[in-house]
Structure formats: C-alpha cells, structure tokens
Automatic annotation (TrEMBL):
InterPro entries: GH (IPR017853). It comes from Entomoneis paludosa. This is Asl1-like glycosyl hydrolase catalytic domain-containing protein. SUPFAM superfamilies: (Trans)glycosidases. The lineage of its organism: Eukaryota, Sar, Stramenopiles, Ochrophyta, Bacillariophyta.
Length: 245
C-alpha cells in the first residue's frame, strides 16, 4: 500500500471516478499514457542535462507495446529517435512504420535496433556449440539465406523516409547463430557479403528507393553521394533477387 506506483494508480482512479471493476481498455491506455510520459520526461531530462551531445533513442520498443498507440504518441516528445526491436516479420510493414513515426510520433526518425535470422547450417559447420534454440529471430536453412534476408529487410526499410538506420543483433554467436562472426571471430562470409553490398551503397539506395516509392517509376540513374556504383544502381537492384518487384 506504500508503493508509489500503486498510490499513483489509486489517485488516477479517484480523479477519473473509476473503480477496479469498471476499468475499460480506454482507461488502460489513458493511464499508460500518464506512466509513459512520466518515465520518458524524467529520463530525457536527466540525459539532456548530463549528456547533451548524444541522441536519446529511448528503450527499444518490442512485442505487444508496438500495437499500442500510446507507446509512440506519449514517448515521442521526449525522444530524438524512436527505436524498435523488429521481429517476426520477413518484410518491414510500411503502413505500420508510417503510423508509428508520422501519425503517432509527429514525424520522428526511427531506427531498428534488433533483428536477425539464424542459419540452420551453423549447427553443423560452426566450431562452436550452436543449437539455435534461443532467440526471436527467424531460422533459415543457410548463411546465404541470412544474407538474402538482410538485403530484403534493409532494402524495404530504405523505402521509408523516416527510417534512419538499423542494428543487426548481434555481432558474435553464442548458443544460437545470431552473429556476423562465430565465437572464433570468423565471419559468416555469405552474410557479410550481403551486408557489404547494401552498406556500401546505402545512401544511393535510399535516394533511388525513395524516388521510385514516391514517383512509382524506375529511374535509370541515381543522384548524389560518393557511394559505390551509384550510376549503375538499377542494374545492381536487379541482381538483388529478393527485392520486391
């Protein structure tokens, strides 16, 4: 009965003339908004006071909270970038990302801070004890499939103007094949090659994909930047068989 959270909840119920027996989903969302605003206001103020030269990315939303509008609407005023751990989707959902970043967060940038796929072939080929039993990422047959997933997922992230980056989880394997390298620091070459193909062209790809997304046309040339092979990007796009046509 002395818990501050409980006391605040009781006060909120009294202020809104509610009891425990007549709470609705709308009430749940309203009280969650109060909690979210309070938490991010306190944390953001502390970070900006003591570390003003860095961006505040929040707490990496994931799971069911990403289905609650108040998660994004209430936290956005206090965040520099919205961060989401984006699992259980082969393809980023453009409408969902736009709702999070534009409709609810009033045009905030967003970063995907966790996502990955595990390769079944690592269970036999890796020198480590890989069993792929842990983790939320997809399980695919080979390292080449992991690379294809990386290309497909990132190319579709680049179609959205609010997405400013992504972070693959994780750098090194442990008991599941999540890593770019195994526990001996040996890279999974097929995955690394796909990452390099995207990452060395990321700004030219973004320019091209955003142009085609808004115009509905294929352009024959990509403008801007010192990215590798920018002028031949449409040809490079055709080589990425996992890109949506």
């Amino acid at each position: 009965e002395t818990d501050p959270g409980r006391i605040k909840a009781q006060e909120w119920l009294q202020e809104h003339h509610k009891t425990l027996t007549d709470i609705t989903k709308k009430d749940d969302s309203a009280f969650a908004t109060v909690m979210i605003q309070q938490y991010y206001r306190i944390v953001s103020t502390a970070i900006k006071a003591n570390d003003p030269n860095h961006l505040y990315l929040g707490t990496r939303f994931h799971g069911r909270v990403t289905n609650q509008d108040c998660t994004f609407a209430a936290s956005a005023p206090f965040l520099d970038v919205i961060s989401v751990n984006y699992y259980h989707r082969w393809t980023p959902e453009q409408a969902r990302i736009t709702k999070w970043t534009q409709d609810l967060a009033h045009n905030k940038p967003m970063m995907v801070t966790e996502w990955y796929a595990k390769g079944q072939d690592a269970e036999e080929s890796s020198p480590d004890n890989i069993d792929n039993q842990s983790g939320s990422g997809f399980l695919v047959p080979t390292q080449a499939d992991r690379g294809a997933f990386y290309e497909h997922f990132t190319m579709n992230l680049l179609r959205n103007p609010n997405v400013v980056g992504w972070h693959w989880f994780r750098y090194m394997d442990y008991t599941s094949n999540m890593g770019i390298v195994n526990a001996q620091f040996e890279p999974y070459q097929a995955l690394a090659t796909s990452m390099q193909r995207i990452n060395t062209r990321v700004y030219a790809l973004s320019d091209y994909l955003l142009t085609t997304a808004t115009s509905g046309k294929n352009t024959s040339k990509v403008s801007g930047g010192d990215d590798a092979d920018a002028d031949s990007l449409p040809q490079f796009m055709d080589e990425l068989v996992i890109v949506d046509k």
